[in-house]
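Input/output pair, single chain:
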Amino acid sequence: MLIGEKIILRPLKMADLEKTHEWRNNIELIKMTQGVRFPKTLEMDKAWFDNALNDKSNRNIYFGIDEIETNAFVGIFQLNSIDYISGTAIWGFIIGDKDKQNKGYGFEASKLLFNYAFNVLNLRKIFSYLSAFNQYSIGMHEKIGGFIEEGRLRKHVYFDGEYHDVIILSLFRENFIGR
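Output:
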Protein backbone atom coordinates (compact mmCIF):
# COMPACT_ATOMS: atom_id res chain seq x y z
CA MET A 1 0.00 0.00 0.00
CA LEU A 2 1.02 3.55 -0.71
CA ILE A 3 -0.23 5.93 1.97
CA GLY A 4 -0.79 9.64 1.52
CA GLU A 5 -2.45 12.29 3.68
CA LYS A 6 -6.01 11.82 2.39
CA ILE A 7 -5.86 8.60 0.36
CA ILE A 8 -4.37 5.13 0.20
CA LEU A 9 -3.37 3.39 -3.01
CA ARG A 10 -3.84 -0.33 -2.55
CA PRO A 11 -4.19 -3.31 -4.87
CA LEU A 12 -7.48 -3.43 -6.73
CA LYS A 13 -9.71 -6.15 -5.25
CA MET A 14 -12.83 -8.06 -6.26
CA ALA A 15 -14.89 -6.04 -3.75
CA ASP A 16 -14.32 -3.04 -6.08
CA LEU A 17 -16.17 -4.72 -8.94
CA GLU A 18 -19.66 -3.26 -8.50
CA LYS A 19 -18.49 0.35 -8.15
CA THR A 20 -16.07 -0.04 -11.04
CA HIS A 21 -18.85 -1.55 -13.17
CA GLU A 22 -20.95 1.56 -12.48
CA TRP A 23 -18.07 3.87 -13.50
CA ARG A 24 -17.23 1.86 -16.63
CA ASN A 25 -20.81 2.40 -17.83
CA ASN A 26 -20.95 6.14 -17.06
CA ILE A 27 -20.83 7.89 -20.43
CA GLU A 28 -19.21 11.08 -19.03
CA LEU A 29 -16.40 9.07 -17.42
CA ILE A 30 -16.02 7.02 -20.61
CA LYS A 31 -15.69 10.24 -22.59
CA MET A 32 -13.01 11.67 -20.27
CA THR A 33 -10.97 8.46 -20.11
CA GLN A 34 -11.45 7.40 -23.75
CA GLY A 35 -12.91 4.19 -22.38
CA VAL A 36 -14.82 1.49 -24.21
CA ARG A 37 -18.04 3.12 -25.40
CA PHE A 38 -20.23 0.05 -25.46
CA PRO A 39 -22.36 -1.06 -22.50
CA LYS A 40 -20.61 -3.56 -20.27
CA THR A 41 -22.48 -6.23 -18.38
CA LEU A 42 -21.48 -7.17 -14.86
CA GLU A 43 -20.26 -10.50 -16.28
CA MET A 44 -18.02 -8.67 -18.78
CA ASP A 45 -16.56 -6.51 -16.03
CA LYS A 46 -16.08 -9.56 -13.81
CA ALA A 47 -14.01 -11.13 -16.62
CA TRP A 48 -12.04 -7.86 -16.94
CA PHE A 49 -11.48 -7.88 -13.16
CA ASP A 50 -10.41 -11.53 -13.18
CA ASN A 51 -7.90 -10.65 -15.90
CA ALA A 52 -6.59 -7.56 -14.08
CA LEU A 53 -6.37 -9.23 -10.66
CA ASN A 54 -4.69 -12.37 -11.98
CA ASP A 55 -2.33 -10.76 -14.49
CA LYS A 56 1.09 -12.26 -13.84
CA SER A 57 2.84 -10.42 -16.68
CA ASN A 58 3.86 -7.54 -14.38
CA ARG A 59 3.09 -5.23 -17.31
CA ASN A 60 -0.09 -3.79 -15.78
CA ILE A 61 -0.64 -2.57 -12.22
CA TYR A 62 -4.04 -1.48 -10.91
CA PHE A 63 -4.46 0.41 -7.66
CA GLY A 64 -7.73 1.11 -5.88
CA ILE A 65 -7.89 4.50 -4.20
CA ASP A 66 -9.45 4.61 -0.75
CA GLU A 67 -10.31 7.78 1.13
CA ILE A 68 -8.58 7.51 4.52
CA GLU A 69 -11.29 9.39 6.43
CA THR A 70 -14.19 7.18 5.28
CA ASN A 71 -12.40 4.12 3.87
CA ALA A 72 -14.53 4.66 0.71
CA PHE A 73 -13.30 3.33 -2.64
CA VAL A 74 -13.10 6.47 -4.81
CA GLY A 75 -11.09 5.56 -7.90
CA ILE A 76 -8.54 3.57 -9.82
CA PHE A 77 -5.00 4.48 -10.83
CA GLN A 78 -3.07 2.29 -13.21
CA LEU A 79 0.22 1.73 -14.97
CA ASN A 80 -0.14 -0.20 -18.22
CA SER A 81 2.12 -1.56 -20.93
CA ILE A 82 5.08 -1.40 -18.57
CA ASP A 83 8.30 -1.92 -20.52
CA TYR A 84 11.04 -2.68 -18.00
CA ILE A 85 13.77 -2.67 -20.64
CA SER A 86 12.90 0.79 -21.96
CA GLY A 87 11.71 1.97 -18.55
CA THR A 88 8.34 3.28 -19.74
CA ALA A 89 4.65 2.92 -18.89
CA ILE A 90 1.30 4.46 -19.75
CA TRP A 91 -0.66 5.79 -16.81
CA GLY A 92 -4.34 6.43 -16.38
CA PHE A 93 -6.82 7.14 -13.66
CA ILE A 94 -10.43 7.64 -12.77
CA ILE A 95 -12.01 9.28 -9.76
CA GLY A 96 -15.45 7.76 -10.19
CA ASP A 97 -18.11 9.54 -8.17
CA LYS A 98 -18.73 13.23 -8.84
CA ASP A 99 -18.77 14.06 -5.12
CA LYS A 100 -15.23 12.66 -4.78
CA GLN A 101 -13.81 14.64 -7.71
CA ASN A 102 -11.93 17.93 -7.27
CA LYS A 103 -10.85 17.10 -3.71
CA GLY A 104 -7.18 16.63 -4.51
CA TYR A 105 -7.35 12.82 -4.51
CA GLY A 106 -6.11 12.51 -8.10
CA PHE A 107 -3.22 14.88 -7.45
CA GLU A 108 -2.15 13.07 -4.27
CA ALA A 109 -2.56 9.63 -5.85
CA SER A 110 -0.50 10.64 -8.88
CA LYS A 111 2.38 11.76 -6.66
CA LEU A 112 2.28 8.40 -4.85
CA LEU A 113 2.03 6.50 -8.13
CA PHE A 114 4.91 8.36 -9.80
CA ASN A 115 7.13 8.01 -6.77
CA TYR A 116 6.43 4.26 -6.86
CA ALA A 117 6.99 4.03 -10.63
CA PHE A 118 10.26 5.96 -10.61
CA ASN A 119 11.78 4.88 -7.31
CA VAL A 120 10.50 1.33 -6.83
CA LEU A 121 9.94 0.04 -10.36
CA ASN A 122 12.90 2.08 -11.68
CA LEU A 123 10.92 3.43 -14.63
CA ARG A 124 12.27 6.52 -16.35
CA LYS A 125 9.23 7.80 -18.27
CA ILE A 126 5.47 7.80 -17.68
CA PHE A 127 3.14 9.00 -20.42
CA SER A 128 -0.55 9.48 -21.08
CA TYR A 129 -2.99 10.14 -23.87
CA LEU A 130 -5.44 12.94 -23.01
CA SER A 131 -8.42 14.15 -24.97
CA ALA A 132 -7.74 17.81 -25.70
CA PHE A 133 -11.19 18.73 -24.30
CA ASN A 134 -10.48 17.11 -20.92
CA GLN A 135 -9.53 20.29 -19.07
CA TYR A 136 -9.70 18.59 -15.66
CA SER A 137 -7.00 16.08 -16.59
CA ILE A 138 -4.89 18.65 -18.43
CA GLY A 139 -5.06 20.91 -15.37
CA MET A 140 -4.00 18.07 -13.10
CA HIS A 141 -0.98 17.32 -15.32
CA GLU A 142 -0.03 21.01 -15.14
CA LYS A 143 -0.43 21.02 -11.35
CA ILE A 144 1.77 17.93 -11.01
CA GLY A 145 4.39 19.71 -13.09
CA GLY A 146 7.25 18.42 -15.23
CA PHE A 147 5.11 17.00 -18.06
CA ILE A 148 6.05 17.79 -21.63
CA GLU A 149 3.85 17.51 -24.69
CA GLU A 150 5.48 14.98 -26.98
CA GLY A 151 2.83 14.93 -29.65
CA ARG A 152 -0.72 15.41 -30.73
CA LEU A 153 -2.93 12.98 -32.57
CA ARG A 154 -5.15 15.21 -34.72
CA LYS A 155 -8.89 14.53 -34.78
CA HIS A 156 -8.26 11.16 -33.15
CA VAL A 157 -11.31 10.44 -30.95
CA TYR A 158 -14.97 10.87 -31.78
CA PHE A 159 -17.43 12.20 -29.18
CA ASP A 160 -20.48 14.41 -29.28
CA GLY A 161 -20.65 14.55 -33.06
CA GLU A 162 -17.08 15.63 -33.74
CA TYR A 163 -13.48 14.46 -33.76
CA HIS A 164 -11.09 15.68 -31.07
CA ASP A 165 -7.32 15.81 -30.73
CA VAL A 166 -5.47 13.58 -28.29
CA ILE A 167 -2.41 15.04 -26.55
CA ILE A 168 0.54 12.83 -25.60
CA LEU A 169 2.11 14.04 -22.35
CA SER A 170 5.21 12.54 -20.76
CA LEU A 171 6.92 12.85 -17.42
CA PHE A 172 10.57 11.84 -17.12
CA ARG A 173 11.98 10.78 -13.77
CA GLU A 174 14.39 13.73 -13.67
CA ASN A 175 11.47 16.15 -14.13
CA PHE A 176 9.32 14.63 -11.39
CA ILE A 177 8.93 17.36 -8.80
CA GLY A 178 7.10 15.37 -6.11
CA ARG A 179 9.95 13.11 -5.03
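Strands lie at 2-3, 7-11, 61-67, 73-83, 88-95, 125-131, 148-159, 162-172. The chain has a mean pLDDT of 90.
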